[in-house]
Amino acid sequence: MSDIAPQNTLSVTLHERDTAKIAQVAVRHLVIAGWTGRDRAALEKHIAELEELGICRPASTPIFYRVAAARLTTAPVIEASGGASSGEVEFAVLRHAGKLWIGVGSDHTDREVEAYGVTVSKQMCDKPVAAHFWDYADVLPHWDRLILRSFIVEQGERRLYQEGPVTAMLAPADLLALWNGGEMAEGTLMFCGTLAAQGGIRPSPGFAFELEDPVFGRTIAHRYAICELEVAG
User: Fold this and answer.
1) Count of other CB atoms within 10 angstroms of residue 33
2) In a domain, 3, yes or no
3) Which of 74, 171, 181, 189 is deepest in the core (most CB within 10 A)?
4) Distance between CA 107 and CA 122 in Å, rounded?
5) Which domain of life is it from (predicted)?
6) What's the confidence (pLDDT) of residue 2?
7) Residue range 33-61: average pLDDT?
8) What values do phi and psi take at 133, rounded to 5?
9) Residue 1 falls within a domain, yes or no?
10) Taking the mean position of all CA atoms in its chain, how far away is CA 93?
11) Taking Cα atoms as reference points, which of 82, 86, 81 lies closest to residue 206?
C-alpha cells in the first residue's frame, strides 16, 4: 500500500478496559472485505440475494476491495445519487497507535452500480462508522458473544433489517491473515463482512446499526439519514 495515501482524520472515542479517551485517528487505508462468511450456506444465501439484483458472483471468497479513506464518515447524514443505495452493518477493525480496535460501520453501496462494477460501487457512497471503538484485546476472550444488528425505516416505522453473531463472519485474526500477507499497516480500517438482510436487500431513507457486547453490557451504535440526490441523466 502507498505511503503517500491521503489521510482522513476522525474524532473517535477509544475504550480500553475501564477508561475512555477521545482521539484523533488518522485513517489512510480503507478496506472492504467481502464474502467473509464462515457458514458456507449463509454465504451462498447472500450471494444469491445479490444475484437477484444482477450482481455477479465474486472472483474469490473472501475478497478485499480498496476504497478511498475520505469516504469514511461519522456524520448523521450522507448524500447518495438516486435511490438505489442501501446500507449493511459490518464490524470494523482499526489499526491505531500500534493496536487493534473494534468498531462498527455500514458499507453503504449503490446497488445499481454494483450490478456491473462492485469496486466502483464501493467507491460511490460514503461509509458511515460509529465514533466509538473497543480495544480488541478486551473483547477477544468473548468475541463469539458479540452481536451485529441493523434497522431500516419502512413505511415510517423502524424495522429490524439484519441481526446475527459476529461468528457468521471470519474472526479478525483469520481474516487479517489473508490480507496483505497478514500485515495491517498503521492507519488502516477494514470492514469485515455482513449478514443477510431480512426480507431482502432494499433502500431506506434511514439506516441504524449497532454492535452489542452482552458480556460487558455495552453497545456501539450509530444512525444516519440518506439524502437522495437527483440524477439528471
Assistant:
1) 24
2) no
3) 189
4) 8
5) Bacteria
6) 56
7) 80
8) -135, 140
9) no
10) 9
11) 86
Number of Cβ atoms within 10 Å of the Cβ of 55: 21
Domain of residue 28, residue span: 8-229
Higher pLDDT, 181 or 192: 192
Four-point Cα dihedral 152, 15, 177, 144, nearest 10: -60
List of residues 6+ apart from 197 with CB closer than 8 A: 49, 88, 161, 162
Judge whether residue 40 has pLDDT over 90: no
Sheet holding 218-229, edge to edge: 77-81, 218-229, 206-213, 147-154, 157-165
The answer to whether residue 188 sits within a structural domain is yes
- CA distance linking residue 132 with residue 183, whole number of Å: 24
Q: What is the pLDDT of residue 3?
A: 60
Distance of alpha carbon 47 from the chain centroid:
17
* CA angle (189, 227, 90) in 5-degree steps: 30
> According to DSSP H, which parts of the chain are helical?
40-52, 111-114, 118-124, 136-139, 172-177
State the cell numbers at 132.
466509538
More confident call, 2 vs 165: 165
Q: CATH code at 122?
A: 3.90.850.10
CA distance 213 to 91: 12
For the chain, give the percent of residues with pLDDT over 90.
Answer: 76
| Predicted local distance difference test score (pLDDT) of residue 47 | 78
Cβ count within 10 A of residue 60: 10
Q: How many domains does the chain have?
A: 1
Per-residue confidence (pLDDT) for residue 56, from 0 to 100: 77
Look at residue 58 and tell me if it is in a domain. Answer: yes
- Which residues sit opposite 114 in a β-bridge? none
